[in-house]
């Protein structure tokens, strides 16, 4: 079914990340939908190890320049864009010196999670939402991949609840086995600043608890990894949200 507007929000995508299932799956899904005649856009964080020169990233001045307030602090939002190598498929990168310049993803060289991982996820989610609105491009389908992306539906259904911009968009969440870690205990204060409270994930804020929480805010959940770890699999089996077992790339448009 071509001519759909499909937005992929992801933390990983080949060739910007290599050797992970998520990066490969997102690349193949986006390319397949693009080649079938859909209007596809991809949004991801501009992590420090993504080479701007190698992948020819350039700043989109008309989209940059907004500030996102995180916990009462103004953080400048920088938007960069590149075409997927060899394809006319645009990938947008959410950037900010404070949150994304470092060379590691979520853990330091000693394996400790970064203390501001929660703020980075909030900034990413809100940055994507605000940039899409500024693009004046309304997606039919929003497909989420990676734990940071799970903050998007939580924000859409709470902070942006009265905003009709995304009201007709269907949201799909893919589940992957990602390394779990605690999030800052003060995340509840940061979310309360955006009038978000009452989340079950706040009882024990972790990467995984927010992914599980987000299942309640989407239209469909699908396994991104064929076999999920015990906690995720349990949550998948228990959710009342429409769900699908692992799909190969050729079957993904059946879900849409």
UniProtKB/TrEMBL annotation:
Catalytic reaction equation(s): [(1->4)-alpha-D-glucosyl](n) + ADP-alpha-D-glucose = [(1->4)-alpha-D-glucosyl](n+1) + ADP + H(+)
Keywords: Glycosyltransferase, Transferase
KW Cytoplasm (keyword) present: no
Stretches assigned to the Starch synthase catalytic domain: 5-178
First-level EC class: transferase
Enzyme Commission number(s) of this protein: 2.4.1.21
Recorded GO MF terms: alpha-1,4-glucan glucosyltransferase (ADP-glucose donor) activity
InterPro entries tied to this protein: Starch_synth_cat_dom (IPR013534)
Pfam families linked: Glyco_transf_5
Protein known as: starch synthase
